[in-house]
Each structure stands twice: as C-alpha cells, then as structure tokens.
# Entry
Amino acid sequence: MIGDKIAQARRKMNMTQAQLAKQLFITPQAVGKWERDESIPDISTMNRLAEILDVDLNYFSESEPVFVPKEKEKARPTWDMSLGDWVDADFSGIKNIHEKFSTSNMLRSKFICAALTGVHLKGNSIDRCDLRGATFDDGVWEKCYVINDVFKDCGLRGTELVGCYIKDCDFSGADFTGTVFTSCYLQKIPLAGAVFSGTTFKGTDLNEMVFEGLVEDCVFDNCNFSRVTFQQVTLVNTFFKSRRLNKIRFVDCKVDRMTYEFLKNGQVDLAGINLQETI
# Structure
C-alpha cells in the first residue's frame, strides 16, 4: 500500500523516481524498491517524503487509501532584497526572501536563524556578518565574496556554490549534506562538527583547512590542496582525484577499502591512515 501511495503522489507531482531520489539524497533504485513494496522508508524519511510530495503524513497510513493533498497554507508576503546595501542591520529570523537576494552587500549584519531556503546569491559581498543557524538549503551561491563571517550550525543541504571566494569564515557545525562546491576558493575555514555527506568539491582550492569526524560519500575532484589536514577522520566511499593529493596531511584517520585505493593511487602519505575493511 505504501509503495502504491508513494508512486501515486510522485506522479501527481510530475516527478520521476530519479528526481525524487535526488531530493532525498538516495538512489533511484531505493525509490523503486519502495514503490514495489520491497522495502519501506524509515520515519524520518517518511516526514521528508510528505514534504516533497506535498501530502499529509497520514496519507501513507493504511487507513487512508486515497490521495489527500495537504491543506494549502495562506500566502505569505515576499520581499525583494536584491541590490541592497545592508550595514549593521539585524535581520535575525527573517523569512519569505525566497530567491530575491542577489547582488547585495552585507556588512556587519545579523541573519541569525534566518530562513533563506532556496535563496539565490549572485555577486553578493558578505563581510563580518553573523549567520549562525541560518538555513540556505537548496539554494545557489554564485561568484560571491564571503569573508570574516560566522556560519556556525547553518544548513547548506543541497546548496550549489559556484566561483565563490570564502575566507576566514567559521562553518563549525554546518550541514554540508549534498552541497556542491564548483571552482571555489576556500581558506581558513573552521569545520569542527561539520557534516559532510554526499558533499562534492570540483576544481576547488582548499587552503589551511582541517576536516574532522565523518566524511561519507563525498567527492574531491581535481581540487588544489594547500596545508589541508584530515584529523581523526573516518572516510567512507569518498573519491579523490588530483595531482596534489600528496599535499594533504592525514592524522589518525580510518578509511574503507575504496577510499584507500583512491588515496594510494594519488601517492598520498599513508602513514596516518588505517585501512578498515569494515566501517
């Protein structure tokens, strides 16, 4: 029953299995198994499914056999903050910006716990701002200049960053699940407690950075590394390809077989790496 309901709601949204899988950061094959009733999603995934498919969670219960769209929320106002100069402003908790925030200059401003999901930043300058706990999920940052800012515990799930310059910004505790960095420059970025799952770095310069904790299903493709350290990191199913992998320092790290082979092929100093056949 659950499989049929997922398939029915997905088709109502004109969405393919692959498109649904991308939003859930899983494989299309997993969605196919749900719809064939070969497996079922866990409760946290069910909640996310309900949001994506625009249905009430009760829709998936066995007692509710028909498609029931969620009650539409009352329309909220939106604001266009593009082309603005925001200096010493306090926009903590701001909502309803959506995609209208390009080419703005932000100096010493506060966006603590701001809801910026889906926002498109293009050519923005963000300097000495406090964005702790802000949510940028599923957004786009394009050619932004970001320095001396605090992004502690912020969310960047599924966010795309292209051609951005980011330096001396604190991303401790940030969630980079599904985040994609393309042709970016990153320097002196604290990452303690940050989440790296399905994160991709393409043609990106990483400088004076320390990775800690778990790095899973990630990609480092043709990146430049300078004084980058992986310290007490568990690396799982993570792809490395670069001519400068020997610039990375590994300290007390655990890796699975697949990741180990990528690193060995890149002529990494394996002294600080412990191969774990099962992680």
Q: What stands out?
A: DSSP finds five helices and 21 strands in the chain. The first strand starts at residue 85 and ends at 87. The CA atoms of residues 213 and 251 lie 12 Å apart. The mean pLDDT is 89.
